[in-house]
Automatic annotation (TrEMBL):
This is GntR family transcriptional regulator. PANTHER family: TRANSCRIPTIONAL REGULATOR, GNTR FAMILY (PTHR43537), TRANSCRIPTIONAL REGULATORY PROTEIN (PTHR43537:SF49). GO terms for molecular function: DNA binding; DNA-binding transcription factor activity. Residues 7-74 form the HTH gntR-type domain. SMART domains: HTH_GNTR. It comes from the Bacteria. InterPro entries: GntR_C (IPR011711), TF_FadR/GntR_C (IPR008920), Tscrpt_reg_HTH_GntR (IPR000524), WH-like_DNA-bd_sf (IPR036388), WH_DNA-bd_sf (IPR036390). CDD domains: WHTH_GntR (cd07377). Keywords: DNA-binding, Transcription, Transcription regulation. Signal peptide: none annotated.
Length: 222
């Protein structure tokens, strides 16, 4: 394999393994052996190792000296903490993006919002919707101009996405995506006007409502 091909393989394998983790192909606490993954996915051990390091950075994989890499187990208390962090961090990210992003980044964000909404309407596929949501966050992170804030949001987003995909019903997830799309339509004109404070308020209200809905659903399942 050429050096130019390796980054593409790393990116595609990382995306695929993340999808499989969210789909429940590997159970919480299950060991992710490098040799086994290399055989299952027909990739090299160095590619597997790099992917596991990336997923560990996102909190989806836990690495220990005794067991190597295992699927992170996320319990209800951890979900509550992640939702709390999300409610605090994402409105800050949205405000920074609104106030600091370039016009080109704002247009790219609007395009990402439109693609996300189009997928909700025209594709009965949660995985495709999640991919567009990842694009949405990528543009948001780039335009906010804060590596520390973007990194913190990226980790909680990845961990919550894995938990929600595994433990919440697809119908509930689809409904939450529709609510998110409604919020995007509401907040986009505010962001275009560069009103960071108002965008922060709308985003914080949505984060609080979404967290409450998720916790109600999880408690109802017990």
């Amino acid at each position: 394999m050429t050096d130019a091909a390796r980054p593409t393989l790393f990116v595609s394998f990382t995306a695929q393994l993340r999808i499989d983790l969210e789909a429940g192909r590997f159970q919480p606490g299950e060991r992710l052996g490098e040799n086994s993954l290399a055989d299952q996915y027909a990739v090299s051990r160095p590619t597997v190792r790099a992917t596991l390091q990336e997923l560990a950075r996102l909190g989806l994989v836990t690495r220990s000296s005794g067991r190597g890499a295992t699927v992170t187990a996320i319990d209800l208390d951890e979900v509550k903490m992640l939702l709390t962090l999300r409610s605090q961090l994402e409105p800050m990210l949205v405000r920074r993006f609104t106030e600091l992003s370039t016009n080109a980044q704002m247009e790219a964000f609007a395009d990402a919002v439109g693609a996300f909404e189009h997928t909700i309407v025209h594709a009965d596929n949660l995985a495709a919707t999640r991919r567009h949501l990842d694009d949405f966050y990528r543009v948001l992170h780039e335009g906010a101009g804060s590596w520390a804030l973007a990194s913190a949001v990226e980790v909680q987003h990845a961990m919550l996405a894995m938990y929600r995909s595994r433990d919440l019903a697809p119908g509930f997830q689809a409904e939450r995506y529709r609510v998110a799309a409604q919020t995007h339509r509401l907040i986009m004109p505010i962001m275009r006007q560069r009103d960071g404070r108002a965008a922060h308020i709308v985003c914080a209200r949505h984060m609080h409502e979404d967290a409450s809905a998720v916790l109600r659903e999880l408690l109802a399942q017990e």
